[in-house]
Design a protein that fits this description.
With 277 residues, the chain is α/β, with parallel strands linked by helices. Helices cover 31% and strands 20% of the residues. The protein has one domain: Rossmann fold (3-Layer(aba) Sandwich), CATH 3.40.50. A 7-stranded mixed β-sheet has the order 3-2-1-4-5-7-6, with helices on both faces. Bound molecules: S-adenosylmethionine (SAM).
């Protein structure tokens, strides 16, 4: 992407600021039978179970690409940081796992998301969670403050991923662990890479799988490994035109690209890493 980092971040902020107040999935309204619980529909598609969703109040929707909380082996009393916490779904689930002696911290740069998340935490009555407004490239979190970092479909949106991994390393305790759900790519075409619309939609900023893992190792992490992977087809990417695979998912932004140009070239991965002791 040739656009300056500041412009990309502004576009991301605007997109997610609007997304939190919109109901429906990207290519049109949700099926009628689940129209009043669209957040469940989106969350089920990301890999949450009906049991997990049953504890959530209405409005706690998922913008994620997986369920990182399900895969982390957090202990009671741990401190968990969620990068790009959105509406707070993973924060609420993690807060139950760490119990009363633990803490969860959400971090998000979009004011509308932070506000929605605070309301959702309040509605759920979660006492051990807070959300901080800030950027993951410069985290408002102390050195060695947390035991676990989770993140769900967020790091791909950063124009400076090396900085994100360096910050993640700084704020983790020695021996601290990460479970990240994110998007990686395989030979994405140049026009997709240059589309701001595809960037805010978690596609254009997705780096090659090998580069992603390399960046984490270079930041100092050990045991870096992919523990789950799902390559996205046209249908998975929300193409409801069935045969054409031409429908795009982004609200008609002018540099939009058709789904077929990136279908089967992006995957949702769950990546584990550990800071050495
Ligand atoms: C695709 S949404 C995912 C939200 C949430 N993790 C979920 O699973 O529903 C991306 C979120 O990351 C936030 N975000 C994007 N770039 C960020 C950055 N550089 N620093 C902090 N938050 C960021 C956005 O505001 C948005 O809430």
């Amino acid at each position: 992407m040739k656009k300056p980092e500041k412009e990309i971040k502004q576009a991301v902020k605007e997109h997610y600021g609007k997304a939190i107040s919109r109901k429906g999935c990207c290519c049109g309204p949700p099926p009628e039978e689940i129209a009043d619980r669209v957040e469940d529909y989106l969350a089920l598609a990301s890999g949450y179970t009906p049991d997990e969703l049953s504890v959530l109040p209405s409005g706690v929707t998922s913008f994620g690409c997986g369920n990182p909380v399900a895969l982390m082996s957090v202990k009671e009393g741990d401190v968990v940081l969620d990068l790009g916490s959105g509406a707070g779904l993973d924060l609420i689930l993690a807060s139950k796992k760490v119990g009363d002696r633990g803490r969860v911290i959400g971090l998000d740069m979009t004011p509308e998301m932070v506000e929605a998340c605070r309301k959702n935490l309040e509605k759920t009555g979660v006492a051990n969670a807070e959300v901080r407004q800030g950027e993951m490239e410069d985290m408002p979190v102390g050195d060695g403050e947390v035991d676990w970092i989770i993140s769900n479909c967020v790091i791909n949106l950063s124009p400076d991923k090396e900085k994100v991994f360096a910050e993640a390393y700084r704020v983790l305790k020695p021996g601290g662990q990460m479970m990240i759900s994110d998007i990686v790519s395989y030979n994405l075409p140049e026009d997709v890479r240059e589309s701001v619309s595809a960037w805010v939609g978690c596609i254009a900023g997705a780096v090659e799988e090998t580069d992603y893992l390399k960046m984490m190792r270079e930041a100092g992490f050990d045991d870096v490994k992919i523990v789950e992977k799902r390559t996205y087809s046209c249908a998975d990417l929300g193409d409801h035109s069935e045969s054409e695979c031409g429908c795009s998912c982004r609200e008609g932004m002018e540099d939009d690209v058709p789904v077929k140009s990136y279908a089967d070239k992006v995957a949702s991965v769950k990546v584990y890493a550990r800071k050495p002791l």
